[in-house]
C-alpha cells in the first residue's frame, strides 16, 4: 500500500516537473532570454596581491595608515565607519597620544551636562567613529537621493571585498560606445556614473579619487597615484571589517600544528589497537 | 546490551562501585559507548560520521551557549551586537566563526551519515526506528539552522525569514494568517527575532534528546555493517572501546583539521556577503538564497513553475507555488517511508548491482539540485532542476520499489568474519601473485 501510494505521489510530482520542464523548454527555445546589459558588461574585480592574502598574510601597517589617511581626507566626507572604535586604531601602529588626537579631532554626540540638551563633544579613544548624517533622510537629501553606506563591513559585505573596493574606485570610465550601440536604453542616467565593477553598472557616487597627489603621503611612502590610494583605502577597509584577521590566522596555524600532531598520534593508536585484528 | 557475549561492567574503583550500585550511570555509559557494546569488526570509515555528528552538535551547543551570553535578540541592536562579539568580546570572532561554520560542518557530516545509511540499507529491518528518529533529527536541525541564520539580522536573515515563512502563505485560505502568526506580525520584526532566538536555543536540546533515543534504538539490534549481514557470533564483533573509540579518534582528528582550515583561513566562504549588511525592509537583495545545506530543497521548491489546472478550463486546482512547497516537504517526508518502499531483503548496496548504479545517479542528482538551488532562478538552472527534481522523486518512489522487485543480488558472504577473512586473503594473494605475473610477462 505504501509503495502503491508512494508510486502515485512520485508519478504526480515527476509528471508535473516534466510538464513544467517541457513548458519551460518550449518557452526557452521560442524566446531565448535576451542578454542584459549587466550580463555583458559587468566585470569581476581585478585581483590585487594583498599583504593579507594567504594563510600567513598580515596587514601592512604603513599601508593601513595611508588607507586611513585616504578614508579621513576623502571617504569620510560622506561615509561613516560606525562599528570601529578609535581605540582599535592601535592595530594600525598609532600610539596612545596619536589615537587621542585622532579622536579629539572628531565631534561625537553627547548631552550637555547642565541643560540636558543634545550636543556634541570631542571624541575619546573609547568612542566609535560618529555617523556622518543624523539619519537616512538627511543622507539622501545631501547626496542626490542616494544613501552613502557605512563602510565598517564593506569589505565583507561584497563578494571578493577588498578587490571589489579597489576595482570600483579605479573602475570609473566613459560608457563604452559598444554598450550604447547594443543597448541604447542603458545610457547612464543624470547624476549617475558608469562603472563596470558595480552590479548594475551605474552608481551614484562620483569618482572619489581623481588625481595623483589628491592625498599627500608622508616621507618614504609610495607615490599617491590613484591606484595606490585605492589599494591603500581598500586594505584599510579590509582591516576595518576584519580587525582580528592576524589573530585568526596565527591561531589557526597553531591549532593546525596541534591537530596534525594529535591526528598522527590517534592514527598510530588506531593501528596499534587493531594490530592483528583482521577487519 | 545487544548480544549475550557483551562484556559486563565491573567497577574497579570503590567510588565507582558505590556510584554504580546506587545509580548505574557508569554502567549505562560502558554499555553505550564503552567495552560493553559489541560492534561488527568490519565497519569502514563511513561509520565515523555518527560520532562526528555528535561532536558537531556538542561544538554548536558550547559555542552557542557562550554566544547567547553576548548576543542581544532585539531587532534594533541584534546586528550591532554580533559585530560587538566579533570585535570586542575576547575570542568572540572565534566563537562566532566556529558556530557559523560549525553549522555547515554539522550538515556535512549528517549528509554523509544519511547517504551512508541510504547505501548500506541502514533503514531496513530491524533498524527502522533508528532511521525514523534520524529523519526527525534532520528536520529539527533544519529548523534550528534556519532560525539561527535569522539571528544576526542581516539582509539574508531578514529576507530568508520572509521567504521561508512565506512558504506557509501558499496554503489555501489559512496560509496568510499562518504566516502572520508565525512571524508575530505582517513582516519579520522584533517579535519574529525574539521567538526565533527562543526556539533556536530550545531546539538543540530537543535534538540532543532525540539523539539519545536514536542511540538507544541503535543499541537494540546493534550497529549495521558494510556487508549488511547480521552478526552471528562473538567472532564477528569487537568491543566499541577501545576498537572504535580509537578509529573514531582518528576520524575526529581529520574532521577537526578540515574544520580548522575553513574556520581559521576561509571563515566567510560558506556564508553570503549580504548578511554583513544590516536588515533593511525597504531593500530586497538581488538573489535571496538560503545557506548551502538547503540548496537541494530550495531547488525543488523553485522547480515547480506550472499550476495544476483542469485542462481547457483554466481552473487552477493547485497553484505552482503550493506544488513547490508540497514537493519540498514531500522530498524529506518520503524518507520516513523508505524502510517500506525498498523491500529488497539485501541491506548493503555492495551486493545490489542495479541499486548501486541508481544510487550513484542519486548522489549526482542531489549535487546537481544543490548547485541549481544556489544559482539564481534563471534558465537554464530552472530547467535543470526540474529534471533533477523529477529524478529525485522517481528514484525513491518509482525506481527503488521496482529495483527491489526485479534485482538479482550478488551472493552474500556467510558471515562478517567470512567476508573479513576473504578480503585479507585476497590482499595476500595479490601480493603473492604480483611476482609470478611479472615473471610471466617476460
Describe this structure in words.
The complex is a heterodimer of chains A (279) and B (442). Chain A is mostly helical and 279 residues long. Among the domains of chain A are: 41-84 and 129-243, Cytochrome c-like domain (Cytochrome Bc1 Complex, Chain D, domain 2, Orthogonal Bundle), CATH 1.10.760; 247-274. Chain A has helices at residues 2-30, 37-41, 61-73, 96-104, 136-142, 161-170, 177-182, 226-241, 245-274, and strands at residues 107-111, 118-122, 193-194, 202-203. In chain A, a hairpin with a 7-residue loop joins strand 3 (193-194) and strand 4 (202-203). In chain A, helix 3 (61-73) packs across helix 8 and helix 6 (161-170) runs antiparallel to helix 8 (226-241). The longest helix of chain A has 30 residues, at 245-274. Chain B is mostly helical and 442 residues long. Chain B folds into two domains: 31-285, Up-down Bundle (Cytochrome Bc1 Complex, Chain C), CATH 1.20.810; 289-410, no CATH class. In chain B, the strands form two sheets. A two-stranded antiparallel sheet of chain B has the order 1-2. Chain B has a two-stranded antiparallel sheet with strand order 3-4. In chain B, helix 6 (128-150) packs across helix 7 (155-168), helix 6 (128-150) packs antiparallel against helix 9 and helix 11 packs across helix 15. The radius of gyration of chain B is 25 Å and the shape is globular. The relative contact order of chain B is 0.12.
Short descriptors:
heterodimer; A: 279 residues; mainly alpha; Cytochrome Bc1 Complex, Chain D, domain 2; two-stranded antiparallel ribbon; 9 helices; extended; B: 442 residues; Cytochrome Bc1 Complex, Chain C; 2 domains; two-stranded antiparallel sheet; 4 strands; 3% strand; globular
Amino acid at each position: 500500500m505504501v509503495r502503491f501510494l508512494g508510486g502515485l505521489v512520485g508519478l504526480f510530482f515527476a509528471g508535473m516537473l516534466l510538464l513544467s520542464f517541457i513548458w519551460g523548454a518550449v518557452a526557452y527555445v521560442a524566446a531565448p532570454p535576451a542578454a542584459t546589459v549587466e550580463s555583458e558588461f559587468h566585470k569581476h574585480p581585478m585581483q590585487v596581491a594583498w599583504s593579507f592574502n594567504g594563510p600567513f598574510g598580515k596587514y601592512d601597517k604603513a599601508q593601513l595608515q595611508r588607507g586611513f589617511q585616504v578614508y579621513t581626507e576623502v571617504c569620510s566626507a560622506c561615509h561613516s565607519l560606525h562599528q570601529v572604535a578609535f581605540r582599535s586604531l592601535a592595530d594600525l601602529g598609532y600610539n596612545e597620544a596619536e589615537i587621542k588626537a585622532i579622536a579629539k579631532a572628531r565631534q561625537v554626540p553627547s548631552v550637555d551636562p547642565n541643560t540636558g540638551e543634545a550636543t556634541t563633544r570631542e571624541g575619546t579613544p573609547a568612542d566609535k567613529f560618529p555617523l556622518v548624517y543624523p539619519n537616512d533622510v538627511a543622507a539622501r537629501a545631501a547626496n542626490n537621493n542616494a544613501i552613502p553606506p557605512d563602510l565598517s563591513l564593506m569589505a565583507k559585505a561584497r563578494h571578493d571585498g577588498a578587490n571589489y573596493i579597489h576595482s570600483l574606485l579605479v573602475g570609473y570610465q566613459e560608457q563604452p560606445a559598444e554598450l550604447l550601440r547594443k543597448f541604447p536604453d542603458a545610457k547612464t542616467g543624470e547624476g549617475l556614473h558608469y562603472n563596470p565593477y558595480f552590479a548594475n553598472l551605474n552608481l551614484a557616487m562620483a569618482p572619489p579619487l581623481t588625481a595623483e597627489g589628491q592625498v599627500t603621503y608622508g616621507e618614504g611612502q609610495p607615490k599617491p597615484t590613484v591606484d595606490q590610494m585605492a589599494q591603500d583605502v581598500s586594505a584599510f577597509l579590509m582591516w576595518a571589517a576584519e580587525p582580528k584577521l592576524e589573530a585568526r590566522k596565527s591561531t589557526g596555524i597553531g591549532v593546525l600544528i596541534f591537530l596534525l600532531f594529535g591526528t598522527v598520534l590517534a592514527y598510530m593508536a588506531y593501528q596499534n589497537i587493531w594490530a592483528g585484528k583482521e577487519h | 546490551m545487544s548480544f549475550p557475549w557483551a562484556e559486563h561492567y565491573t567497577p574497579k574503583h570503590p567510588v565507582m562501585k558505590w556510584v554504580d550500585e546506587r545509580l548505574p550511570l557508569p554502567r549505562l555509559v560502558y554499555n553505550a559507548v564503552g567495552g560493553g557494546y559489541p560492534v561488527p569488526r568490519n565497519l569502514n570509515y563511513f561509520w565515523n560520521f555518527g560520532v562526528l555528528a555528535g561532536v558537531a552538535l556538542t561544538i554548536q551547543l558550547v559555542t552557542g551557549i557562550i554566544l547567547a551570553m553576548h548576543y542581544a535578540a532585539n531587532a534594533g541592536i541584534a546586528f550591532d551586537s554580533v559585530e560587538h562579539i566579533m570585535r570586542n568580546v575576547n575570542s568572540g570572532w572565534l566563537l562566532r566563526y566556529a558556530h557559523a561554520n560549525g553549522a555547515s560542518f554539522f550538515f556535512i557530516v549528517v549528509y554523509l551519515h544519511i547517504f551512508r545509511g541510504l547505501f548500506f540499507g541502514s533503514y531496513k529491518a530491524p533498524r527502522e526506528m533508528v532511521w525514523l528518529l534520524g529523519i526527525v533529527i534532520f528536520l529539527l536541525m533544519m529548523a534550528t539552522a534556519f532560525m539561527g541564520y535569522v539571528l544576526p539580522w542581516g539582509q539574508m536573515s531578514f529576507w530568508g525569514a520572509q521567504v521561508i515563512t512565506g512558504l506557509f502563505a501558499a496554503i489555501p485560505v489559512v496560509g496568510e494568517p499562518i504566516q502572520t502568526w508565525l512571524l508575530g506580525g505582517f513582516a519579520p520584526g522584533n517579535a519574529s527575532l525574539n521567538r526565533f532566538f527562543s526556539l533556536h536555543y530550545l531546539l538543540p536540546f530537543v535534538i540532543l534528546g532525540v539523539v539519545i533515543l536514536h542511540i538507544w534504538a541503535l543499541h537494540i539490534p546493534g550497529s549495521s555493517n558494510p556487508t549488511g549481514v547480521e552478526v552471528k557470533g562473538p567472532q564477528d564483533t569487537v568491543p566499541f572501546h577501545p576498537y572504535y573509540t580509537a578509529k573514531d579518534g582518528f576520524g575526529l582528528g581529520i574532521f577537526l583539521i578540515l574544520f580548522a582550515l575553513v574556520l581559521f583561513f576561509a571563515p566567510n566562504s560558506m556564508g553570503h556577503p549580504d548578511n554583513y549588511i544590516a536588515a533593511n525592509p525597504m531593500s530586497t537583495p538581488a538573489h535571496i538564497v538560503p545557506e548551502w545545506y538547503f540548496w537541494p530543497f530550495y531547488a525543488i521548491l523553485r522547480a515547480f513553475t506550472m499550476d495544476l489546472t483542469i485542462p481547457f478550463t483554466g481552473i487552477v486546482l493547485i497553484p505552482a507555488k503550493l506544488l513547490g512547497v508540497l514537493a519540498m516537504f514531500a522530498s524529506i517526508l518520503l524518507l520516513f517511508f523508505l524502510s517500506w518502499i525498498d523491500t529488497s531483503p539485501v541491506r548493503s548496496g555492495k551486493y545490489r548491482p542495479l541499486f548501486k548504479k541508481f544510487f550513484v545517479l542519486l548522489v549526482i542528482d542531489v549535487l546537481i539540485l544543490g548547485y541549481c538551488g544556489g544559482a539564481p532562478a534563471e534558465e537554464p538552472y530552472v530547467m535543470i532542476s526540474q529534471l533533477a527534481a523529477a529524478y529525485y522523486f522517481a528514484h525513491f518512489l518509482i525506481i527503488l520499489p521496482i529495483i527491489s522487485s526485479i534485482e538479482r543480488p550478488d551472493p552474500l558472504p556467510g558471515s562478517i568474519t567470512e567476508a573479513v577473512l576473504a578480503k585479507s586473503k585476497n590482499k595476500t594473494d595479490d601480493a603473492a601473485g604480483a611476482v609470478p605475473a611479472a615473471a610471466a610477462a617476460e
